[in-house]
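Mods, move this if it's the wrong board.
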Amino acid sequence: MLTHYAHEPIEMAGGTTFHFVTEGFDAAYAQALEAADGRGVDIAGGASTVRQALDAGAIDELTLDIAPVLLGSGERLFDGVETFDFEPVEVLSSPLTTHIRYRRRDAG
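Not the wrong board. Structure tokens:
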């Protein structure tokens, strides 16, 4: 888990262990790839984490969950992202949220 705060690993019932990484996205992603041992790696996070993953070329598929906000503000997801070569492959909507799944064009 990419974080700004050091924390001891947390072991969950069923064998899942959460490791907390403070050395940045690249270090967290490298640890996740090693732990996955050839399987897929899921990345979940806010705008900064997603931008870092996009910049690293670590995303083949991206799911955005969009909930409209009438008041307030937030961090812009794609600020500073040079290219976004993804295409929408699924859109699910309800009165409270919209889910859009994108796939990288060269991911097949």
